[in-house]
Write a structure and sequence with these properties.
Elements (H helix, E strand, L loop, with lengths): L23 H14 L12 H12 L9 E3 L8 E12 L5 E11 L3 E3 L1 H12 L2 E2 L1 H16 L3 E10 H4 L10 E8 H4 L1 H10 L7
Helix pairs in contact: 1-2, 3-4
EC number: 3.5.4.16
Protein name: GTP cyclohydrolase 1
GO molecular function, one term: GTP cyclohydrolase I activity
Length: about 210
């Protein structure tokens, strides 16, 4: 790697390059037009400022928080799992622009460097701050850790409830979607995989 501190912005995936600054005025006008097109008047007192609130809410959800991805040399040669469980997750389904929320469990087997623990949550938040699908989000977090830590293994499991399933369509209230990405020895070694799933509370590894 060579550098101890790296700007996470330099490692955005290829789908998001030079993201423009949100134009809140244009977004507010579009939100008002959207409501009017659905037959909803914004003349009532309770709805007068709704387009502005909608614009600001989506701008907040789609703007990742900058951070420095601080890494440290693994001087002690630590060779067991580093795992952060139940990282809160919120993002927006790219198909319906409805939220999905849940938790992420992120772990890795260190190589020569280790990552500051809080940065595992930061990486999840960074890739969640855009329209997403859960499968891609899971893989993006795992690939980022692999590319920039060169660990011996990475495991990411996301459990989320999608309001595009619970509030519309099938109305599957209470349903949870689980996705996982396992790389390195967590994918190839059954015992390592079993340990990872056991630590995050998932039984049965296949």
């Amino acid at each position: 790697m060579g550098e101890i501190e790296m700007s996470v912005a330099a490692y955005a995936d290829l789908r998001v390059v030079d993201r423009p600054v949100p134009n809140l005025d244009a977004a507010e006008q579009a939100a008002a037009a959207f409501l009017h097109a659905l037959g909803i008047s914004t003349a009532d007192e309770g709805l007068q400022n709704t387009p502005r609130r909608v614009a600001r809410a989506y701008a907040e959800m789609f703007t990742p928080k900058p951070f420095e991805a601080t890494t440290f040399p693994n001087d002690e040669g630590y060779d067991e799992l580093v795992l952060v469980r139940d990282i809160p997750l919120r993002t927006v389904c790219e198909h319906h622009l409805l939220p999905f929320t849940g938790t992420a469990c992120v772990g890795y087997l260190p190589g020569d460097r280790i990552l500051g623990l809080s940065k595992l949550a930061r990486v999840v938040d960074y890739f969640a701050s855009r329209p997403q699908v859960q499968e891609r989000l899971t893989k993006q977090v795992a690939d980022w850790l692999t590319d920039h830590l060169q660990p011996r293994a990475v495991g990411v499991v996301i459990r989320a409830e999608h309001t595009c399933m619970t509030l519309r369509g099938v109305h599957a209230t209470g349903s949870t979607t689980v996705t996982s990405t396992l790389l390195g020895t967590l994918r190839t070694d059954a015992r390592s995989r079993q340990e990872f799933f056991s630590l995050i509370g998932i039984g049965g590894t296949g």
